[in-house]
Design a protein that fits this description.
It comes from Carya illinoinensis. Belongs to the iron/ascorbate-dependent oxidoreductase family. This is Fe2OG dioxygenase domain-containing protein. Keywords: Iron, Metal-binding, Oxidoreductase, Vitamin C. By secondary structure, the chain is of the alpha+beta class. It has a single domain, classed as Jelly Rolls (Sandwich). The chain contains nine helices and 14 strands. It has an eight-stranded mixed sheet. The protein has a four-stranded antiparallel sheet with strand order 6-11-8-9, with no helix packed on it. Strands 13-14 form a two-stranded antiparallel ribbon. The longest helix is centred in the middle third of the chain and has 26 residues. The chain is globular, with a radius of gyration of 20 Å.
């Protein structure tokens, strides 16, 4: 399995990409609009959620609810995670991708629940298009996993995971209240003490033909909530009102999005928005999403307070988070095999 980083550096750099990486809207089932319009995702001041007056907190809770309903995305500022920690986390993930191909291949994975999973050029299932991305994913909760290299990766990842968990926990309290539920509902109902926390680092090397390639096609996240940081290079877009919107944020902010499980829990009120990653011809982009999900055996379904059989019937059948992930894995396997 050849990494994109290695491919891009072949013979001092490619002049064009292999045809297997050519991506067009016709390659996917999800309709794609190429039109961009001037709009920006909401910004949430985290400090007012945790330390503001009751009036300020109530206002922020309402803003979170509106962002979840209208966009499924928002930017979080003043969150308290040290900028220095965020910066060193990005730098260390960058160092991982500089390891030898043999060292990275030690972590090659095949299953969505592999505790550490290095991958590259993942087949786009039904599309047969390869993505212009290398990645490393590892679960840090309920049991901590992390590659041993580069030096310091484990310690930095552990500290970063702890600090971001504090932010995610408070955000999920705000989301609970915005739905009219008790503050700790999401945390308790989803059994987050045993919930999954997954760190992913994505490398999108410079691409000689960025107009033909894709870093990641339109997709939604499978968990409850995702917090993302990046190295300052743009590339993330969210689908909003059938248009693609650039997600621009300060590198010291978190880009937060709602996942599939939160959409299920909210009975469809909050949207797990489609988003995609574009590539460029000059700069390597690094993004680090950290995903929070329920405990694997937790059945995810809307609470009774959000369901009315006459006016607001259940929009989803309840299933465990494990069943949901296995269903995703089965779809990937079936589509991949059908194109061999």
């Amino acid at each position: 399995m050849r990494s994109i980083k290695q491919l891009a550096q072949t013979n001092g750099g490619l002049a064009s990409i292999p045809t297997a990486y050519n991506f067009t809207p016709n390659n996917i089932h999800q309709p794609v609009s190429d039109g961009l319009f001037e709009d920006s995702i909401p910004t949430i001041d985290f400090s007012l959620l945790t330390s503001g007056t009751p009036e300020q907190r109530s206002k922020i809770v309402n803003e979170i609810g509106k962002a979840c309903q209208d966009w499924g995305f928002f930017v979080v500022i003043n969150h308290g995670v040290p900028e220095s920690l965020m910066k060193v986390m990005i730098e260390t993930c960058g160092e991982f991708f500089k390891l030898t191909e043999e060292e990275k291949q030690e972590h090659a994975g095949k299953h969505i629940l592999d505790p550490i999973f290095y991958g590259t050029s993942i087949n786009g299932a039904a599309t047969q298009v390869l993505f212009w991305r290398d990645f490393i994913k590892f679960f840090v909760h309920p049991k901590f996993h992390c590659p041993a290299k580069p030096i310091g990766f484990r310690e930095i990842s552990m500290e970063y995971s702890k600090r971001t968990w504090e932010v995610a926990r408070e955000l999920m309290k705000g989301i609970s209240m915005s739905l009219g539920l008790e503050e700790g509902y999401v945390e308790k109902a989803m059994n987050l003490d045993s919930g999954l926390q997954l760190v992913a680092a994505n490398l999108y090397p410079p691409c000689p033909q960025p107009e033909l390639a894709i870093g990641l096609p339109p997709h939604s996240d499978h968990g409850l909530l995702t917090l993302l940081i990046h190295n300052g290079i743009c590339g993330l877009q969210v689908q909003h009102k059938e248009k693609w919107v650039n997600v621009d944020s300060n590198p010291n902010a978190f880009v937060v999005n709602i996942g599939d499980q939160m959409e299920i829990l909210s009975n469809g009120k909050y949207k797990s928005a489609f988003h995609r990653a574009l590539v460029n011809g000059t700069d390597a982009r690094i993004s680090i999403p950290i995903l929070y999900g329920p405990a694997l055996e937790t059945v995810v379904s809307p609470p009774p307070e959000l369901v009315d059989n006459e006016t607001n019937p259940p929009a989803f059948a309840g299933m465990t988070y494990r069943e949901y992930l296995e269903m995703l894995q089965a779809k990937i396997n079936a589509k991949t095999l059908s194109h061999k």
